[in-house]
Amino acid sequence: MTVSDETLMAYADGEVDAATRTIVEAAMRDDPEVRRRVAHHRALREAVKGAFAAVIDEPVPQRLIAAARGAPAGSIVDLAGARNAAAIKSSRGLRWQPAAMAASLLLGLALGYLGWRGSNTLVTVSASGELVAGAGLAEALSSQLSADHAPGAVATTGLSFRAKTGDYCRTFALTATHANSGLACRVRGSWKIKVLAQSAETPANSSGFRPAASADSAAVRAAVEESIDGEPLDQAGEIAARRGNWSHP
Amino acid sequence: MSTNESVESIQEQIVALLPRLRRFARNLVRTPHDADDMVQIAVERALLRLDQWHSDARLDSWLFKILRNAWIDEVRSRGRRAKIFMPEEAGEHVGEASIDREVDRLSVEAALARLPQDQRLAVSLVLVEGLAYKDAADVLEVPIGTLTSRLARGREALQAMLRLPEGDIS
After folding, report:
1. Which pTM value belongs to this model?
2. What local confidence, expressed as pLDDT, does residue A178 receive?
3. Which residues of chain B neighbour A34 with C-beta distances below 8 Å?
4. What's B141's domain CATH number?
């Protein structure tokens, strides 16, 4: 009686029915070669399983436990933001880098969502590979004042300020996606996205209006606090900056 | 199993499954941190879709499937292929390595990493996670015959790479 290797594999995996098991076990009794092949399958199974055994004993990161218990996405992102805020504090001189890291960390979530909606009008990638505001978001960032409540706009703007680099930066919240806030800075004529985060803020209400204060999340706050030079712009400051098309004075 | 379990109860079951989800994710993504990111994304998705889970189905299989699909989406949307196993390329070397016998004995993990992705996932779900063939086929969304053939080829390649003594299998 010859038994195929695939059958022996299934036997070793406990995947054969009673009739096949009887045949295999008879073959094992009669043929040491069959016994050896089954033993190999079992040995490989043990070796492969053993290679990953240590992962099971590792402590599970708190953020995963929080996620499984249904903590709002925003609070989880806030954990990431807190981590990055800590990284910012410990790495003076690399001013934008932690924010950029936060951005890349969160982009998978945010961009996947935006990309899935096919809305590159909000965020797009420039020729040089940088993340920049698409036409719709750029229009909102360039034209709206923070006090504006423009129904139907793709984004509301929150805080405007001069960064230590001299660039004008603005926080924003995307209206359509309900859950993304970010920070963009005006660099060489385009709005570079510095941070894009999911936030747990309440979605826009039926009128499509979001309060400007919702352009906020720990990751965005951390990036603002790190980069801001002095105080945020007041309305007069925003109007002046807008008149200059948000370029360096 | 109750047909009307509370959300909290399912959440605690998911918490209990986190070590296995993390282990499976390590077969998808190279670095532990990225693997945990995938687990987090999958868990968040699962909670949003709890209504799609039927309590007579295995929760672990369902979560593995969400994790795998989340990973596929990530690969597509993030373009992070550099950080993820390169199964197509690695797979091409498997045959050469086992023929010319020039490779040193590989660790099991390194050998698994060299398997083509389809085979690696089949091996991981059945041999590491202990899923039944039909559950593993369901996670991978393939017929059971496809699953067993991937599993057989994956094992064969592993045997060759790990230089476990080979019998006259033919």
Report:
1. 0.52
2. 55
3. none
4. 1.10.10.10
